[in-house]
Amino acid sequence: MRAMSVAGEPRFDARPIGPGTVCVVTGGLGFIGSNLTHRLVDLGATVRIVDALVPAHGGDARNVAGLDVDVLVADIGQAVVADAVSGAHVVFNLAGQVSHTASMIEPERDLYWNAITHGRFLETLRLVQPDVRVVHASTRQVYGRAIRLPVDEHHPANPVDVNGVAKLAGEQLHMVYARAYSMAITSLRLTNVYGPRQRLTSDELGFLPVFIRTALENGTIKLFGDGSQRRDCVYVDDVVDALLAAAGEYGIGRVYNVGHAVDHSLAEIASVLTRLAAAGGRASEVVLSPWPGDHQRIDIGSFHTDSGLIAAELGWKATTDLADGLRAALAFYREHPWYLSST
Amino acid sequence: MRAMSVAGEPRFDARPIGPGTVCVVTGGLGFIGSNLTHRLVDLGATVRIVDALVPAHGGDARNVAGLDVDVLVADIGQAVVADAVSGAHVVFNLAGQVSHTASMIEPERDLYWNAITHGRFLETLRLVQPDVRVVHASTRQVYGRAIRLPVDEHHPANPVDVNGVAKLAGEQLHMVYARAYSMAITSLRLTNVYGPRQRLTSDELGFLPVFIRTALENGTIKLFGDGSQRRDCVYVDDVVDALLAAAGEYGIGRVYNVGHAVDHSLAEIASVLTRLAAAGGRASEVVLSPWPGDHQRIDIGSFHTDSGLIAAELGWKATTDLADGLRAALAFYREHPWYLSST
């Protein structure tokens, strides 16, 4: 059951994730991490969460309420994390700061959370559990403005904000450790992700949670500019599938885009949400608004991910279309209204 | 005399560097910084050096002995640096940690010196002197192993060591500030640089100072592997020319390669040095040696920079050929023998 590396050495335990598999999920109380944790528990895995619960980063212990998991509240750069990763088979490294605008207001803070702590974490892994399988969550923000669409992994990485710079450094540190120390690491550049368990009350975590919140509150979905910028949005269950696909025996030392084959304009996305919210007995409207302050300076225009590489090499592709995913998300938040008032 | 930005706003004082120009050189006690400082003083500029004199980074106050310059011994991330940059017309930001092997031994240290302190420095510039002209020294190490030769600026940046990751983050922070805040910043990716005022006694600052030292000491030039790896080496006076060319009114927000049109194998470079050293009354020999420890893991193989973009846009190209440059370097070190015993 031990997979072989390119060089033919035993590398890591490539058993499918299930009973007996010990998984560490950093950022496991956050949006994507908690959805992954639910899935891992369903699969029978033992889950250890490491989450610093940094205010505004999106983590909340209620995201894993009722699950039998260990939670270590710690920064992944802390020494105590060695205990959590010791004996682990798979590490899903999803911890990080995700706000683009916050990264421009406090640049060093973003470099700390997305690069420095990841460097420390990689050192911990190298020293404590070097044969662990690692999947790291990167972001399509590392590309910056697209110079061609769709954007594949060969597209230049020219981030437009400090978040993109710091996330790229964090991703590249993972790849340096993969090559220099033959560690079994894969990184996924995630596009805009939406679905259950996302912090809705912040305006800093991307446009999707803001759209969903205002649709649910019967409010106004405000679009900056003319709403013509396009994004390929991916439902969080599809992202969980991608993380699991990337934890297998293939894709070591590789970086993959994780996005959706179908893109939509922000106006279309808002319109779908308006329609779905109205069907739920509410109405909302879409309003165009000028760009506030300096936000446009770090806007990347239209973006569409080419996720053909992960499809070819790991067999993953997004299967949830936008309307189905948004419908499921709205239903989840109606059943869990605390997400609309959480601070 | 004020240049206009793309948007038509006055941007910075684009006067040629000369009497009345206030220049800040970070890392100004180091190899490239001190050579630049000598030139700037020759041009009549007022020079303020900021250098942390971090042991092993290559700085030494003797490199600017006899020059009338201000020296602030400080980390560029410190608040006191605001005084040095206040009122400056041009900042040459050359501070940094350059050892690839050291970056793997102390990864966080490299991230600190090449990324974090540069983020702090950019914040200082933005707040104190946002219209200053800035030239940043990056490195061809950001590319990692070449997937095609010669390597132009569109080549993917996949660093093989922490130094490359951190330098790329530092460079990209400069570009984020250039775009987001309309600051007049240019970054140069320097290839292997050699010449006077380089710390020769460290084995961690690249192969060229080691070769030069051992040639001068009548010792053995030891080559790892078969000596067939190729590099385009550039004489420091040419690099100073490039830094001055990049401080003008063109190239804002751009990143340029700075290398030599002619590349050589390491065996050829060692052979040229052997011949030159012998002509100076000494003899040395070239010995092939296996790679020590993990060094090969972060070796990038052959590399050849394509510097056509800076030639086309800024009119710079390297004019010193290898034998002439090495001859001048050897002559300098014979006149200044303390470089062979400095610790």
Question: How would you characterize this protein structure?
Answer:
Two copies of one chain form a homodimer. The first copy, chain A, has 343 residues and is α/β, with parallel strands linked by helices. Chain A has a domain at 2-195 and 234-261 and 305-320: NAD(P)-binding Rossmann-like Domain (Rossmann fold). Helix content of chain A is 35%, strand content 19%. Chain A is built from ten helices and 15 strands. Chain A has helices at residues 31-42, 81-85, 100-105, 107-128, 162-180, 207-216, 236-246, 266-279, 308-314, 322-335, and strands at 2-4, 10-13, 22-26, 46-51, 70-73, 90-93, 133-139, 184-190, 192-194, 220-224, 230-231, 233-235, 255-258, 264-265, 285-289. The first copy, chain A, has a seven-stranded parallel beta sheet with strand order 5-4-3-6-7-8-13, sandwiched between helices. In chain A, strand 1 and strand 2 form a beta hairpin. In chain A, helix 4 (107-128) packs parallel to helix 5 (162-180), helix 6 runs parallel beside helix 8 and helix 8 (266-279) packs across helix 10 (322-335). Chain A is globular and about 55 Å long. Chains A and B meet through helix 4 and helix 5 of A and helix 4 and helix 5 of B.
